[in-house]
Design goal:
With 785 residues, the protein is mainly α. Among the domains are: 250 residues; 59 residues. The protein is built from 15 helices and two strands. Strands 1-2 form a two-stranded antiparallel ribbon. α3 runs antiparallel to α4, α3 runs antiparallel to α9 and α8 runs antiparallel to α9. The radius of gyration is 58 Å and the shape is elongated. The two termini are 94 Å apart. 12% of the residues are buried. About 8% of the residues have low confidence.
Length: 785
């Protein structure tokens, strides 16, 4: 699930970056379109200027042609003047009145010529200045057009890169989404299977609980009937009324203390970060200590915050000592946990530290409100933060009082009854939940305050970084307090239950009873070790535990091993039967061999006797009465053998054996014995198989119970992760709102900039229009002249 949350955070970050870049891309596209429109307008203006320049060149050519004509005409007039002067000298005497009239006309022509020359010079100067100004404006516009084209190319390249990057990001996010959907589907299937298994385990657990309750009732009735030596007069000092050592309670207590230690370590780290970043913020805002000195109040506040480690670190150390004091060989109750008193003292010192810095925190927020740039919304948020800090300090004071009450029984006996202890634990759980709510509200108000401070014009990057770190420490503080509150509520039944109590008494366990309990435990351990030494060596406990873990690790492997064991036992039983059969066959063959050897020996003896009789007939005749006498002696012995009574393990059998049937009787008896032994072997194998199946079912039930506990723990962790995810979603929504506001501000600034650019362009267009009008007016004047 951690991987899933990491992917979700990455996905949200990429989505935020994509939205940012998309907004920037839209702004850039708009700017590129505007610049393209401007470049097109500039090109049109350049074309118009070229056209006007060509017109002015044509006008200049026409004026130069006209000037040449006028110059020729002036020359002709000068020639005519010279001719007329020569004629005037010749005919001076004729008449003076016509000469005067010629002189007057000559003067008029001279004045007119002088005016034309001056006007021609002035027009030449104006034409030259207009050409220079036109060429200068044309070069400026060309350079401006080149710059705009370069900017448009750069914008197009940036847009292309951003689009490729966005497409890659979208493809990667889509692949991540598909993978996460597949993973979520597999997790849902596993969750359904776990639910089915948990239901089965719950049914088996209910059955086992009912069976255990029945056994407990039966055992309690037996104890009440058969153990009448309880001393009811002095219950507190009864040496026989000592409760047994509860190892399960000790293991649970150590596990709970270990979990609480990890949560306390997270809380201590979050508090250290919160106080340190608060100190840094005091040095930066409202006055930066690197530029000007801060107020004496903030200096004192910073000095107190610098000492926070001396009050926060001992909380972790004292709880670590408390966790180390809880072992399997101790008795963990409020009356015997002495290390809890040191933790309560350090918690009280930290609460006093919070009470000491509370006025300075309130004054610091008031100074922030007194700054000239502080808005009404910021003032309201600072007031809300003041109330949050007061509430936080009051919650810590309540927790201090409850923790001191819990540490009191370890110092003074009979300080608090069991009912009061349960009430204190319940109130402490409620205080932890209120602490989580207070820190959550403070984090929410800090987030809103940070978003408002981002809008201030005098905000610095250093202050932004410190504020982000402070918000991160508040988020970790919120998550750690939420985990502690949930953990305490889940284990409230364990805290309020009495793990040790004397039989038939409602009083708590005192240290004397705890010492006697530990002494009895040591005696029992010594007795068991002595028994182990006296008994033959068995499997070591560590090996047995490892074998048990291996057996309970996987149900499939256990089933396969049980099948293999059953097959091997069947095979062994079959081989034993075959072995017994062949042993019986070997014994029968041995008996037959002995019989054949005996018969062969008898035949050899008879043969030898027959050969001896044929060689010594008289002695044989003499020996006949002796043989007849021996046969007569043997007959009664054979008669005695007719009434033989055979007794064995199978039973009694009356037989009249002969020499040939003795081996058959023995073989029959061995066959019957073998049959019954085989039957006994089959019954033993069936008994062993049933025992192994019972052990297998028992181990499987225990494994299912463990899986149920693991599923419950995973459910708790998943609920915590869901809470953290919701907190992250709220925080990301706040960040999205802040980024949206910042982008809106940027867009407004860009729009203002574009408006100013449009104004400058309109001014330039007006200047160009005025120049055009001026050039047209000059051209009209020249044409009129």
């Amino acid at each position: 699930m951690a991987n899933v949350t990491d992917l979700q955070t990455k996905y949200s970050k990429l989505a935020q970056e994509y939205s940012k870049l998309r907004a920037q891309n839209q702004v850039l596209k708009k700017g590129v379109v505007d610049e393209q429109a401007n470049s097109a307008s500039f090109k049109e203006q350049l074309k118009q200027r070229d056209q006007s320049l060509r017109k002015q060149e044509q006008e200049m050519d026409s004026l130069s042609f006209r000037n040449q004509q006028l110059a020729k005409r002036v020359e002709l007039l000068q020639e005519e003047l010279a001719v007329s002067e020569a004629k005037g000298k010749k005919g001076k005497s004729k008449a003076d009145s016509p000469s005067q009239h010629g002189l007057e006309t000559q003067c008029v022509f001279d004045e007119d010529l002088q005016k034309k020359i001056e006007e021609n010079e002035r027009l030449h100067i104006q034409f030259y200045e207009a050409g220079e100004q036109h060429s200068r404006q044309e070069s400026e516009l060309k350079t401006r057009l080149q710059e705009l084209e370069k900017d448009s190319e750069q914008h197009q390249a940036v847009v292309g890169r951003l689009t490729t990057k966005y497409m890659e990001t979208i493809e990667r996010l889509q692949s991540d989404k598909a993978r996460l959907e597949i993973k979520s589907q597999t997790l849902e299937r596993e969750a359904k299977e776990c639910r089915m298994r948990t239901e089965e385990c719950q049914q088996q657990l209910r059955l086992s609980q009912s069976e255990l309750n029945r056994q407990v009732k039966q055992s309690s009735s037996v104890i009440q009937e058969k153990v009448p030596f309880n001393d009811t007069k002095l219950i507190g000092y009864n040496s026989l009324n000592v409760p047994p050592h509860n190892r399960r309670h000790q293991l649970k207590a150590r596990d709970v203390a270990g979990q609480a230690l990890s949560f306390i370590q997270d809380l201590v780290a979050a508090l250290l970060n919160f106080h340190s970043y608060t100190e840094q913020r005091v040095h930066i805002y409202p006055l930066d200590s690197s530029i000007e000195p801060i107020s004496p109040l903030n200096q004192k506040f910073s000095q107190y915050l610098h000492e926070n480690a001396a009050y926060v670190r001992p909380l972790e150390d004292s709880f670590l000592h408390l966790h180390q004091s809880i072992t399997e060989d101790t008795v963990t109750v409020l009356e015997t946990v002495v290390k809890l008193k040191s933790f309560a003292d350090h918690f009280s010192s930290y609460t006093h530290f919070l009470q000491k810095i509370l006025p300075y925190q309130l004054k610091s927020l008031e100074e922030e409100c007194d700054t000239p740039l502080c808005t009404a919304a910021l003032t309201a948020k600072n007031q809300e933060l003041q109330s949050d800090m007061k509430r936080l300090t009051s919650v810590f004071e309540k927790m201090q009082s409850y923790i001191n009450l819990l540490a009191l029984p370890s110092v003074r006996q009979d300080a608090m009854p069991q009912s009061s202890t349960s009430a204190v634990f319940t109130q402490l759980a409620a205080c932890l939940h209120s602490l989580h709510d207070a820190i959550k509200e403070m984090s929410k108000h800090y987030n809103q305050k940070a978003s408002l401070e981002q809008e201030l014009p005098t905000i610095t990057q250093k202050l932004c970084t410190t504020t982000e770190c402070l918000l991160g420490s508040l988020g970790s503080l919120t998550s750690s307090t939420g985990k502690i509150a949930t953990f305490f509520s889940n284990n409230l039944d364990f805290f309020t239950s009495s793990g040790y109590s004397p039989r038939g008494s409602t009083l708590a366990l005192n240290p004397l009873q705890a010492e006697s309990m530990l002494a009895n435990k040591k005696k029992a351990a010594a007795y068991i070790s002595a028994l182990k030494k006296a008994r033959p060596q068995s499997v070591p406990y560590s090996d047995a535990l490892s074998n048990r873990r291996v057996l309970t690790s996987s149900t499939e492997s256990r089933e396969g091993l049980s099948q293999q064991v059953q097959q091997s036992q069947d095979k062994i039983a079959r081989l034993e039967q075959e072995k017994e059969h062949w042993l019986l066959e070997a014994q029968l063959g041995k008996v037959r061999l002995e019989k054949e050897n005996q018969r062969i020996a008898d035949l050899e003896a008879q043969l030898a006797a027959a050969q001896g009789g044929s060689l010594n007939s008289p002695p044989a005749a003499a020996s006949t009465p002796v043989q007849s006498q021996e046969e007569a002696e043997m007959e009664p012995s054979s008669g005695e053998r007719e009434a033989t009574l055979c007794t064995s393990l199978v039973g009694m059998l009356c037989t009249t054996p002969s020499v040939e049937h003795v081996g058959d009787e023995e073989s029959r008896e061995t066959l019957i014995k073998t049959h019954y032994m085989a039957r006994v072997g089959e019954l033993t194998t069936q008994l062993q198989i049933s025992d192994s199946k019972a052990v297998h079912f028992h181990s499987e039930c225990r494994a299912l119970a463990k899986r149920l506990a693991i599923a419950e723990k995973s459910r708790e962790t998943l609920t915590e992760e869901i809470k953290l995810a919701t907190q992250k979603i709220t925080r990301l929504q706040d960040e999205l709102a802040t980024t949206k506001r910042s982008y809106e501000d940027q867009l407004s600034m860009m729009s203002d900039h574009l408006c100013s650019m449009n104004e400058t362009l309109s001014k330039q267009r007006e200047e160009i229009d005025t120049l055009k009008l001026g050039s047209k007016g000059n051209a009209k004047k020249n044409k009129g002249r």
